[in-house]
Backbone:
């Protein structure tokens, strides 16, 4: 017999038991735990060799702790080990079997009757005795303590999620009935927190307490416990004792459907598109959790504030997990909102949620109307099979309705994803805001026209007006873009034009700063309109004239572009030189400085070159004392841009020297002067020794570049350290600017202080984008949020460069700047 078992042992390990489990050592590792006469061992694969973990003589204590989801955690205290051995087991019975088996081996090895199993709140006699017969009622006073001992206390072994959301029924006071749901009534109530704060809540009740109905009712609470999004209704708590209650946030504006009906004359398209966008963001979050909602409609959306809605009612929501779809059993479903595959085959996917979202957006744009209200449920599928879809609502933007029709594609694979929908609807929302701003401007113009008509006609002028004036005769102020005025001197008034250089080849600094110019109506009669029809006709002619002018400007810009490309080919190989000349109208004592701009930046300016990626064109430039720094958010700043003479040198000349200015009678505008607006801003070549502003800007740019390089490798919870370093660098920059600000002229302080506020806004935007990236770390919007975060950081770096340019310009004006040493 012994020989038989020895032979059998070569083919089957009958003296060992194998348990699938996970070793918890900071992370979870799936292994097979082998328990036998040779101790406790583990192996990662069935065919691999077992690795020794512990001997039974080394085990001092075993403890089993229940976990969430019916799992259990075994903790083994091993003599000589630095930390305990933690084993995660799928079920409590398996953990009990493992614990009893290890305890038996320990008793045999140590030749003792003492058990190594540790059960809290039980003395030795209780551990060796059978448990009492359960009565069905939980008695909290039945906890035993050791005689004469007060060191034991009761440990709540319920899952943490249950403890977190479990609340006392006495802390809730029910009010009126808000409505009736599928399982029972929904009440208005007040929840009193432990700190005494009172919160308005909605309480869902279940009138049928049978186990199967109770399970379906509680499924909504189980799902809501895991959701945390700004546009999803928040779960307050659960009362699991009969009658079961689910307590959620209550919003004073109620359901979105009723809100749309009551305020349909007040809500604008901007607000309606915003509601659709917020619901879509919530669905992106659910899609990232592999969840289908299955009941997306305005009746299940609550209005938290006039500009914020939240998705709720997760009674039909299900996890789709690895199968990518959920097949519904027999239950009540919203047919008129469902996709064809959901109606025909009870198949629910993220694509079917996309269909339902488009129907919900149609409800929103229709003012709360029910879809297919003219059809019965049984007739809806026939309409869908024939390709008939919901009509376009009256005030729905065409771009949004086009998205709806894409969402209603019969083939689920042709429907857009929620991530794509968020981007597209954001564009529609932005477009609606721009159109509303344009309508406001039109209304303001109309008001000016009617106000003008109500006044008595002024005395006609005997002086013939110039072609372009500052205002229109009917009070219409059409402001042209500064870029258009800069690109075409004809748009500026001829009487205000000044030559950038005088006969002495020096820059004349104007006393007053450049102003925006308004487009006049030289070809129109200057007679005041005496009727509304005349004013309207005059306005139409003015609009046509403006469009013709803009079209001519566009053609001129295209010709300039072709000419510029031709000139750039001729200028290859030349060097650009920067020359500072003392203007006669400003008391400055700067010597003339001529320096060649190297094709590659120095090492200290490398981070700035990483920000400004535009190619530089070789040209011979003569840069005088700057008049104004033009700063545009989101684009490279142009330093020394305004009123700068540009003297192009012959590309075939032997030297890169600047030709003197021609005499006055020969001083004519060049045929096609190149525009500095297309070039990046060069950093002024000044003495940077002990320049705190310059050093702070360089440090800030380096930190932004470091953020760009590290963001792809770090986890979202580590973004805070990167953004914090950017904030510290920005604080140093602002402090350095504050130190130098009192030494500058009062006229330039406003511009620098405005740039400081812009930097603070950029930092707030970066923090906002970081929080958005952290919130969408598990959704499909993860990469898009990272791009937005990098764009915000890039804007911050660009504006810091603008700050340096503004400070340098102010130093030159105040005669505080020193040229860089050769």
Residues:
């Amino acid at each position: 017999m012994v020989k038989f078992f020895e032979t059998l042992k070569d083919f089957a390990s009958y003296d060992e038991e194998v348990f699938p489990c996970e070793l918890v050592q900071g992370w979870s590792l799936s292994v097979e735990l082998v328990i036998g006469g040779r101790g406790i061992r583990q192996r990662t694969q069935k065919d691999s060799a077992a690795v020794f973990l512990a001997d039974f003589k080394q085990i001092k204590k075993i403890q089993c702790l229940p976990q969430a989801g019916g799992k259990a955690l075994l903790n083994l205290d091993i003599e000589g080990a630095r930390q305990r051995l933690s084993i995660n087991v799928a079920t409590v019975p398996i953990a009990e079997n493992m614990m009893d088996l290890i305890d038996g081996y320990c008793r045999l090895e140590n030749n003792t009757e003492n058990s190594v199993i540790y059960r809290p709140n039980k003395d030795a006699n209780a551990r060796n005795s059978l448990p009492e017969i359960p009565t069905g009622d939980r008695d909290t006073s039945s906890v035993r303590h050791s005689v004469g001992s007060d060191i034991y206390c009761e440990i709540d072994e319920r899952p943490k999620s249950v403890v977190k959301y479990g609340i006392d029924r006495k802390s809730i006071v029910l009010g009126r009935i808000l409505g009736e749901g599928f399982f029972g009534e929904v009440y208005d109530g007040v929840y009193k927190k432990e700190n005494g704060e009172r919160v308005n809540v909605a309480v869902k009740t279940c009138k049928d307490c049978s186990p199967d109905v109770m399970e379906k009712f509680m499924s909504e609470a189980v799902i809501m416990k895991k959701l945390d999004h700004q546009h999803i209704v928040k779960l307050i708590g659960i009362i699991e004792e009969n009658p079961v209650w689910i307590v959620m946030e209550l919003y004073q504006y109620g359901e979105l459907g009723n809100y749309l009906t009551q305020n349909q004359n007040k809500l604008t398209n901007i607000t309606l598109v915003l509601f659709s966008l917020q619901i879509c963001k919530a669905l992106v979050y659910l899609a990232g959790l592999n969840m289908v909602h299955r009941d997306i409609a305005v009746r299940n959306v609550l209005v938290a504030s006039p500009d914020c809605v939240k998705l709720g009612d997760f009674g039909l929501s299900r996890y789709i997990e690895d199968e990518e779809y959920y097949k519904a059993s027999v239950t009540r479903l919203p047919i008129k909102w469902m996709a064809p595959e959901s109606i025909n085959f009870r198949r629910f996917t993220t694509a079917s949620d996309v269909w339902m979202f488009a129907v919900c957006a149609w409800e929103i744009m229709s003012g709360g109307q029910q879809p297919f209200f003219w059809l019965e449920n049984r007739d809806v599928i026939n309409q869908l099979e024939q390709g008939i879809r919901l009509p376009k609502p009256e005030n729905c933007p065409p771009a949004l309705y086009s998205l709806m029709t894409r969402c209603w594609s019969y083939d689920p694979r042709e429907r857009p994803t929620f991530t794509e929908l968020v981007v597209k609807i954001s564009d529609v929302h932005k477009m609606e805001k721009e159109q509303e701003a344009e309508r406001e401007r039109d209304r303001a113009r109309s008001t000016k026209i009617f106000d003008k008509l109500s006044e008595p006609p002024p005395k006609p002028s005997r002086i013939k007006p110039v072609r372009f004036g500052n205002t229109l005769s009917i009070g219409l102020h059409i402001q042209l873009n500064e870029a258009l005025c800069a690109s075409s001197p004809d748009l500026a008034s001829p009487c205000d034009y000044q030559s950038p250089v005088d006969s002495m080849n020096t820059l004349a600094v104007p006393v007053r700063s450049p102003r925006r110019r308004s487009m006049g109506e030289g070809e129109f009669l200057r007679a005041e309109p005496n009727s509304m029809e005349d004013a309207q006709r005059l306005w139409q002619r003015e609009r046509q004239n403006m469009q013709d002018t803009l079209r001519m400007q566009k053609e001129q810009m295209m010709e300039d572009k072709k000419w510029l490309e031709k000139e750039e080919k001729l200028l290859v190989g030349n060097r650009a030189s920067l020359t500072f000349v003392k203007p006669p109208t400003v008391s400055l004592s700067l010597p003339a400085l001529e320096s060649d701009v190297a094709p590659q930046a120095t090492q200290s300016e490398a981070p700035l070159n990483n920000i400004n990626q535009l190619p530089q064109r070789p040209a011979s430039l003569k840069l005088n004392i700057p008049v104004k720094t033009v700063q545009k958010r989101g684009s490279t700043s142009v330093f020394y841009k305004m009123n700068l003479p540009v003297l192009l040198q012959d590309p075939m000349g032997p030297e890169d020297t600047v030709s003197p200015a021609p005499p006055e009678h020969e001083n004519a505008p060049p045929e096609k002067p190149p525009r500095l607006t297309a070039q990046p801003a060069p950093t002024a070549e000044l003495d940077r020794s002990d320049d705190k502003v310059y050093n702070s800007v360089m440090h800030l740019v380096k930190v932004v570049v470091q953020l760009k390089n590290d963001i792809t490798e770090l986890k979202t919870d580590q973004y805070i350290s990167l953004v914090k370093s950017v904030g510290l660098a920005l604080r140093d920059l602002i402090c350095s600017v504050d130190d130098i600000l009192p030494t500058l002229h009062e006229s330039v302080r406003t511009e620098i202080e405005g740039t400081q506020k812009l930097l603070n806004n950029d930092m707030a935007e970066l923090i906002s984008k970081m929080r958005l990236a952290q919130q969408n770390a598990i959704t499909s919007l993860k990469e898009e949020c990272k791009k937005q975060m990098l764009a915000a950081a890039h804007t911050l770096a660009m504006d810091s460069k603008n700050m340096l340019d503004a400070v340098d310009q102010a130093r030159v004006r105040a005669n505080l700047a020193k040229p860089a040493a050769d």
Summary: The mean pLDDT is 71. The two ends are 101 Å apart (CA to CA). Residues 160-249 form a domain with the Phosphorylase Kinase; domain 1 fold (CATH 3.30.200.20).
